[in-house]
Amino acid sequence: MTLRGTAQLAIWSDIDPDQETDYLHWLTREHVLERVGVDGFLAGRVFRAEASGKRRFFITYELQDTGVLAGASYLARLNAPTPWSQRTMPILQNFARGGGPVVARAGLGSGSVVLPLRLDLAAAGLHEAAARQALVQRIAALDAVAQVWLVQVDAASTGVQTREKSMRRSAEGVFDGVLVIEALHTAAAQAALAVRPVLGLGLPEAVDTQAFSACFQLDRRLAGLGDPA
After folding, report:
1. Domain boundaries defined on the chain
2. For the segment 91-113, what is each residue's pLDDT rounded down to a tens digit?
3. Which superkingdom is the protein from (predicted)?
4. What's 16-57 look like in SS3?
């Protein structure tokens, strides 16, 4: 049994406020359960924020390994969306999705607030393993930070064309990596971002720095699905 997945899938999307109830019901009553039923998916976590009149969501799935992203079980789900998914996909705005191996991690446990930062790893000075690990360790040592992890997106696996992807009205946002800071509260997440020059993280001014609060999570074993295949 794998105690911790070696890869993560990260997803952002916005919806209009009047669509939120149905969207949340879809996520918590069908979609996340469907996803953690895929071979190699270990758990799903949903985070929520409000900004500029939109309801914003960040979803991350823990994966056994990167191969799950292009695996037969996952692609079968992506190419056979349920009726509820078919109704939901077109309402998603500012959609971005990327998955790959966790290339650095530090800290313990999970935070109630996450700050996920989409990055160009080379431009941020994170093209070497030593620099990546040093960064996550320094952030994890800050007050009220629980865990920090960094994913390098596998563009080939993430970019596979599927029926679900064709149903969304806008092109899928593409990014090279994602740094996720998990904190005990919003102030701690914002404080971690405020010291980014000290940490040596070269973020462009346009990077999305929205913090999200936890609203739902589901572990494969808690869903009665047992260990991953």
Report:
1. 7-219
2. 999 999 999 999 999 999 999 99
3. Bacteria
4. CHHHHHHHHHHHHHHHHHHHHCCCCEEEEEEEEEEECCEEEE
Strands 177-183 and 113-119: antiparallel
| CA–CA separation, 97 and 110 (whole Å) | 21
d(CA 223, CA 36): 8
Of 52, 48, 63, the C-alpha closest to 13 is 48
- 223 contacts 37 by C-beta, under 8 angstroms: yes
Mean per-residue pLDDT, 40-65 = 95
> Which parts of the chain fold into alpha helices (H)?
20-26, 32-36, 72-78, 83-88, 129-140, 155-158, 163-167, 186-194, 196-199
Residue 168 has pLDDT above 50, yes or no: yes
The fraction of the chain above a pLDDT of 90, given in percent, is 71
Burial of residue 40, with CB atoms counted within 10 A of its CB: 0-12 exposed, 13-18 middle, 19 or more buried: buried
* Residues in a beta bridge with 44: 61, 218
Per the rule left: phi > 0, alpha: psi between -120 and 50, beta: everything else, 223 is: alpha
7-219 CATH, one of 3.30.70.270, 3.30.70.100, 3.40.50.2000, 3.40.50.300: 3.30.70.100
